[in-house]
Amino acid sequence: QVQLVESGGGLVQTGGSLRLSCAASGRTFEGYAMGWFRQAPGKEREFVAAIVRWSGGNTNYADSVKGRFTISRDNAKNTVYLQMNSLKFEDTAVYYCAANTNGRSLTRVQNDYDYWGQGTQVTVSS
């Protein structure tokens, strides 16, 4: 069983930055590929970013956030991060982290992820 707890959300102005954190339980965090998803009001949840397991040397981003968001991981802290820069109003959403324990690294498919956090709200004011 893996528990994921997101933090770092909040209210920020357009053009600002936030860093989301996702702390994971479990002794084999480094073996999980991780992802971030988001769900805006009235919309379906969508892929944001993913990072491979172990060293985290490879990443994958949605086109809408590429060049603005950076996913990273610190295995010593059992934590994955999402650095969000140049935020736009349309980035407003609940952000979820997810763990993929089946080896399908960098997948954008939600069903490939086994465990999900409760979400953290990000609101970007125009």
Concise account of the structure shown:
The chain has no helices and eleven strands. It has strands spanning 4-7, 10-13, 18-24, 33-39, 46-51, 59-61, 69-74, 79-84, 93-100, 115-116, 120-125.
Report the total helices: 0
Q: Roughly what fraction of the amino acids lie in strands?
A: over 45%
Order of helices and strands: EEEEEEEEEEE
- In whole angstroms, how far apart are the ends? 40 Å
Mean pLDDT metric = 95
Largest beta sheet, briefly?
7 strands, mixed
Shape: globular
Describe it for me?
The chain is mainly β and 126 residues long. The chain has no helices and eleven strands. The termini are far apart.
Outline the fold blueprint:
Layout: E1 4-7, E2 10-13, E3 18-24, E4 33-39, E5 46-51, E6 59-61, E7 69-74, E8 79-84, E9 93-100, E10 115-116, E11 120-125
Overview features:
globular; mainly beta; 4-stranded antiparallel sheet; 126 residues; 7-stranded mixed sheet
